[in-house]
Specification:
The protein is mainly alpha-helical. It has 6 helices and no strands. Helix 1 packs across helix 2 and helix 3 crosses helix 6. It is elongated.
Length: about 90
């Protein structure tokens, strides 16, 4: 709910620099933002499947202050809005 760790914080946890973290992720073909978005998306997808919590609550749990930002991120990755996703898995 407090958002997600910055790249600087993540790098410090790994005892490396932000630049080194970025280079290592680039070698794997991803960016820090992609990793974070994938984690947030996977958690949101799990919650949409397993709960009837409102989308705004799921947005908050996955670190979004604004449900509209959450919906845009979800749609960019899934191709569906969270509401459409939930409807599709329940039919």
């Amino acid at each position: 709910p407090e958002g997600y760790p910055t790249a600087r914080f993540a790098a410090s946890l790994m005892d490396t620099s932000v630049r080194t973290l970025a280079r290592r992720l680039a070698t794997a073909g991803v960016s820090y933002r992609t990793v974070v978005d994938d984690l947030r998306f996977n958690k949101a997808r799990e919650l949409l499947r397993s709960t009837s919590a409102p989308v705004s609550d799921i947005a908050s749990v996955t670190g979004f202050d604004d449900p509209a930002h959450f919906t845009r991120m979800f749609r960019r990755i899934a191709g569906l809005s969270p509401k459409q996703f939930r409807q599709a898995i329940r039919t």
